[in-house]
Amino acid sequence: MLTFHNVCSVPSSFWLTGIPGLESLHVWLSIPFGSMYLMAVVGNVTILAVVKIERSLHQPMYFFLCMLATIDLVLSTSTIPKLLGIFWFGAGDIGLDACLGQMFLIHCFATVESGIFLAMAFDRYVAICNPLRHSMVLTHTVVGRLGLVSLLRGVLYIGPLPLMIRLRLPLYKTHVISHSYCEHMAVVALTCGDSRVNNVYGLSIGFLVLILDSVAIAASYVMIFRAVMGLATPEARLKTLGTCASHICAILIFYVPIAVSSLIHRFGQCVPPPVHTLLANFYLLIPPILNPIVYAVRTKQIRERLLQIPRIEMKIR
After folding, report:
1. 90: left (phi > 0), else alpha (psi -120 to 50), else beta?
2. Can you tell me the distance from the alpha carbon of 92 to that of 256, in angstroms, rounded to the nearest whole number?
3. Contacts of 172 (CB under 8 A, 6+ apart)
4. pLDDT tens digits, residue range 160-212?
5. What does UniProt give as GO cellular component (predicted)?
6. Which domains does the chain possess?
């Protein structure tokens, strides 16, 4: 590591502290975090397998669900194995490029997930407001293109973040990151140069993704509710709204932890650092854990397929 004026340096690697302030509890914290990661992997892999096997689920909504499951696997796997390494072995060292790569994966796929939720809202809008054209509008090709657009948007939005850090801010006050993963603001806070451009760009992307996507999703549901209220009977209204319940739950599971974590990060100066870090980890873990549960409980075909697994095992025995 090259040092300049004994203040700023060009690090070849960083040191992740894990959960700052709770170092003595790292071994115990590994139990819930390890369990939650295992649940997330098993749940999302199960969703992918069930949708692949069950031909009746080869529909736009379930293809989007598979995209969500893949994204959730990437988000949880890009952070939790490293966190468990810190908890178990004190393996906090992470190379500069690996750190920037982790930052890109986390923020990119969080952006992609928001885009998939927006695509799913469009799917529900067409299915309810224009059901006769749903199969013509949401073809397999269109679904694939919507997924690709969400991915490209994530890459275009987030790609400049690590590049700006690498090229504009090569000097750092310290190589110790008081976090469990390479979060953008945590890394930028360590730099010696003028980070205003990075901060403004990061906030702008956060606004574009979270606010605009949320507004678009809300607008689609306003039109959906207007169409539902025009149905003749309360039973028909409840049945139609029931098809949106899983999507609404998944949206709340994704956006609420991010909003709470962002608000505390910006305005919660009196909140202890361990709470900041725990919330930042929970918003990467809660959606991967709960999304498969929500869709398994709310989707009849997935639920029935999962219930068949024990019966098949009993027949084999």
Report:
1. left
2. 29
3. 8, 9, 10, 11, 190, 191, 192
4. 999 999 999 988 999 999 999 999 988 999 998 888 999 899 989 988 888 89
5. plasma membrane
6. 13-314 (1.20.1070.10)
